[in-house]
Amino acid sequence: MMRKGLAGILTAAFAAAVLCGCSGAAGAGQAVKLKIATVGNEQHQSTIAATAFKEKLEELAGDRFEITIYPNGQLGGEREMAEGVKIGSIEMAVVTTDGALPSFVPETQVLAIPYLFSDKEEAYYILDGYLQETLAPAFEEQGFKHLAFCELGFRHFTNNVREITKAADMKGLSIRVQESPIWFSLADYLGFIATPISFNELYTALQQGTVDGQENPIASISSSAFDEVQKYMCLDGHTYAPESVIMNLDFYNRLTEEERAWIDAATVYARDTQRQMVTDMEADMLESIKAKGVVVCEEPDLQSFRDATADLYQDPAVVQLVSPELTEGVMEAIAEYEAEKQAPADGALQ
Known about the structure:
This protein is α/β, with parallel strands linked by helices. It has a single domain, classed as D-Maltodextrin-Binding Protein, domain 2, CATH 3.40.190. The chain contains 13 helices and ten strands. The chain has helices spanning 2-22, 45-61, 78-87, 97-100, 120-141, 181-190, 199-208, 218-223, 249-254, 257-291, 302-308, 316-319, 324-349, and strands at residues 32-37, 65-70, 92-96, 144-159, 174-177, 193-196, 213-217, 232-234, 240-248, 295-297. Strands 1, 2, 3, 4, 7, 8, 9 and 10 form an eight-stranded mixed beta sheet that branches. The protein starts with a helix and ends with a helix.
């Protein structure tokens, strides 16, 4: 009798656990707790995305979720935040795609291949379609649900020596870059001297002439006051830097179908809203950079940069990090996008 009673208790407990699992990440009537980590302050691109997501999810789901944003690296640096999402101690984070995530998903380094994208619309098309779909399995293998790509922006060169209007003007300049073989290869192909320096030490290095220049998105250049210690800026947009909105995969899968739909919708809203806000910020910041006396080359000879780096993705050092097949897949998707854009124009001429 005792065995039958114990078996009944265990069966009931198992059924209850299954039912709880089917009803979402929280018990019936309880709000689902959702921590969102970002490394930037309240005005940083990552926190802008997190705030837009929170506002939209609360609008859609009411009080179903209890959402708390932790900006300013309160839950650690980007590597620690990504690790926290992976193991489930943090439900969600917004991190730099090609900065924090390559150690988990090496394929994200395809975004460091220079001069892939001509403009933001092209980048959005590839990120939201081809790369979101192609990289999803790799993220899931690491315990992540990759919800969307948001925006840091195109990266541009600045320096204190001369105006950059074409690729040949880069030769001999010492430029601070991120410590990665792809960036070292870019230096080799363009003829500048790659100098890894911590971002926190970069302002002083520019001020003291340790390096001639650096490369970053407009928002980073302005907010870090690099325009105070640089004379020239070239809007070459050598790489497009996105941010990734990542969620713990088990957490996402435990949600109900309705809750996942809310999460997905809030993510799309946050992605599109944040991109527009960052674009608007960049326009104002670029005017501020010019007002400080920085000479800005807005229309460099981009073809000269593309020609100089056309074979970089096949460089042996780069191939070890990013398969040429993935890079070529991105190139083919870009070609399809350009063909689609051209089709209506061709039809109108007939």
